[in-house]
Specification:
With 183 residues, this protein is mainly α. It contains 6 helices and 5 strands; from the N terminus they run E-E-E-H-H-H-E-H-H-H-E.
């Protein structure tokens, strides 16, 4: 199989390691260094976490609404489950990115900073699907209390906005690839 045709698997990072004469693994790949100063990097990370907290608060707020509105509708529940999964993956990847040393290994960069934009887009898409599912249920099925429905739709709109805003905030983190001898 050609090098470019190799499929990614969870052990693909091992191609960046070789054994030395003592039998220990040594990293032989490249590194990625953040171009921002530490103060600006901390501000970007703080903004990322605050936007995530806003999205999570909106998600929890929708979950706190009375169960009789959306509780038994499978297409709304499935959309909420997708939102929950997206929020968990974003939090895990953001915390992992914040804990990385600078410079980080190239495969770590691909797994964290490289994966976050896709996760933000997927979270926004899941929020849009939930918004559509809630709106369909409210307009076509539920005819009783419009205040709870309006609150749910507003919270979903704020969730979508937070996920969309995460994308340019994370984009401020610029990285450069450096040789392995540079750190």
């Amino acid at each position: 199989m050609n090098e470019k045709q190799k499929k990614y698997n969870r052990f693909s990072y091992l191609e960046y390691y070789t054994r030395d004469e003592n039998g220990n693994y040594v990293y032989t790949g490249k590194y990625c260094r953040c171009l921002l100063p530490a103060v600006q990097k901390k501000k970007v990370f703080t903004a990322m976490i605050l936007l995530w907290v806003l999205a999570a608060a909106c998600f929890i707020g929708c979950g706190m609404l009375p169960q009789k509105i959306f509780g038994a509708v499978f297409y709304v529940v499935l959309a909420y489950a997708a939102e929950f999964a997206a929020l968990v993956f974003i939090l895990y990847t953001q915390i992992r990115l914040m804990r990385m040393k600078d410079p980080m290994k190239e495969y770590e960069h691909k797994e964290t900073a490289g994966a976050l934009p896709t996760q933000y887009v997927l979270a926004a898409i899941s929020g849009i699907l939930t918004f559509i599912a809630e709106a369909c249920y409210l307009f076509f099925v539920w005819k009783h209390d419009a205040a709870y429905g309006a609150a749910a739709l507003i919270l979903q709109a704020v969730f979508i906005a937070a996920c969309i805003l995460l994308y340019p905030v994370e984009g401020k983190l610029a990285y450069e690839t450096i040789a392995r001898d540079a750190p």
